Each structure stands twice: as structure tokens, then as C-alpha cells.
Amino acid sequence: MIAALRNRTGGALLALVLAAGLSVISAPPAPAAAAAYERCPDRYSCYFSGADGTGDMWLAPNPGCFDLGHWNPPFNDRISSVFNRGGHEVHMYDWTGSYWKWVADVQIGEQWSVGGGDPRNDVIDAVCVGRTP
Ligand SMILES: [Ca+2]
User: Which Pfam families does this entry report, sorted A to Z (predicted)?
Assistant: First the structure.
């Protein structure tokens, strides 16, 4: 009797999981911007050359500070949007020629995007994940 109840409960759970799966499949297509941000793998912070997760993508490989002008290919002066799927706050800076000027922070789980006319667009030279310079 107990085994039968367990089977019945398990069957009900399976039916719920299948129903949930079907509802996801039948949902309308996600907006293009969400699809673009979704390229970012879980547990990473991702940086995009276009607004709203479009264009080229750079991933921070681990916590720490990264001078984007020293990457191959360089990614400095290119960032227009960010999706922070990692476990640390992100801090972003512009090199003025004499000091690292803070531009913006991106909290865990947040997205950040600026358009062409924004002074923070295409100026970021360094990213610090989970620390400051
Ligand atoms: Ca810059």
C-alpha cells in the first residue's frame, strides 16, 4: 500500500514536471535581447560590445582585475552591456591616462546596458570581479 502511494505520488510529480516542461516549450519566443544575454554561461560575468547583450562577448575567467587592453583580442573601449551571472560584484573602470576612473558597478544577477549616446559606452578599460583595483 505504501509502495502504491509512493508510485502514485511519483507519477503525479512526473506529470507536473512534464506539464511545466511543456509550458516552457509552448511559451512565446524570448525577446532578442534576452536571447543575447542568455549566451552568458552560468557562474560567469559577461561583457558585450553591443547594447543588451549583443555583439562580441568577453567572459571574466575568474575573480580579479583584468586590464582589457592586454587581452587578445583587446576588449578595452568596447563594452556596452554586461550580464553578471557570477558570484561576485563587478566594478568597471576607464583609464584616464593617469588613474582608473570608476564607471559603473554590476551587482550579482544584474544586467547593465548603455546606448551610443551614453558617456559610459565604449570607454571601459578594466573590469574587477569581487575586488577593487
Ligand atoms: Ca577607455
Answer: Inhibitor_I36
